[in-house]
Design a protein that fits this description.
The protein has about 230 residues and is α/β, with parallel strands linked by helices. The protein has one domain (about 10-230): Rossmann fold (3-Layer(aba) Sandwich). Helix content is about 35%, strand content about 25%. It has ten helices and seven strands. Strands 3-2-1-4-5-7-6 form a seven-stranded mixed β-sheet. α2 (about 15-25) packs parallel to α10. The longest helix is centred in the C-terminal third of the chain and has 21 residues, at about 195-215. Residues about 1-5 have low confidence and may be disordered.
Length: about 230
């Protein structure tokens, strides 16, 4: 197992507007038995769960984070299971929805991970991926978090489409992209604080909701892909 370094997960739990925004864009595809990979301490789950969800399984390689999941998901009124590990620790069980929120960029052999996902996904089931967008934005903060890469549409398609069928793919948070570019070129900060998270979440995300529509979700700080096993 691994130990997560840093307090970014704790800080980003306060990004309520962002979590509500991105989850609302794909919640209709979440149903049945759900597997959330790299779940952290479960802070995203309350934004992702839908009335069509029947069970929730968490996988988290960091034992300390996994130990907090029960506390943060105490109000989850469906059967849940917490697994300390990776996809290697899922034996034969299959799921209707598999979710990767800011996880795939941490996996060096990401194509192999996609093949494992196909084995664990029911026919007609959905894979939902959210990843940081555009390699030109890769900076000290990405390196500190252990990101191997940032994604664009062609790269994500090249990894997933040979295995699963694409339903839709789009960028979110166009204003956040501009803020990330300023950090890369001028500020060059490898750490963030709560004030910065709040500024981004309470101000920039509100503007991104408008600009994302205006620019047809053609660019943004994050990329979302929704895929289906057919």
């Amino acid at each position: 197992m691994i130990d997560y370094v840093g307090n970014e997960l704790e800080l980003f739990q306060f990004a309520v507007n962002w979590k509500t925004y991105f989850s609302s864009s794909f919640k209709k595809y979440i149903k049945g038995d759900v597997l959330e990979v790299g779940a952290g301490f479960g802070v995203n789950t309350k934004y992702l769960i839908t009335p069509k969800t029947t069970s929730w399984t968490f996988i988290e390689p960091d034992a300390k984070l996994a130990g907090k999941i029960s506390e943060y998901t105490a109000n989850l009124n469906i059967p849940k299971e917490i697994i300390v590990g990776t996809m290697e620790n899922i034996s034969t069980r299959k799921f209707d929805t598999i979710i990767y929120i800011d996880v795939l960029e941490h996996i060096e052999q990401s194509k192999e991970e996609i093949r494992k996902i196909k084995e664990r996904l029911n026919t007609g089931g959905h894979l939902i991926i959210l990843v940081p967008a555009f390699q030109f934005l890769y900076n000290e903060f990405d390196a500190k978090l252990g990101h191997f890469r940032r994604y664009n549409k062609p790269l994500l398609r090249s990894e997933v489409n040979p295995v699963l069928s694409e339903i839709k793919m789009y960028y979110l948070d166009s204003c956040g992209l501009l803020a990330s570019l300023v950090n890369k070129v001028f500020l060059k900060k490898a750490e963030i604080n709560l004030a910065q998270v709040n500024l981004w979440d309470k101000v920039l995300i509100r503007f991104s909701k408008i600009s994302d529509i205006f620019f047809f979700k053609s660019f943004g700080k994050s990329l979302i892909g929704i895929f289906e096993k057919r």
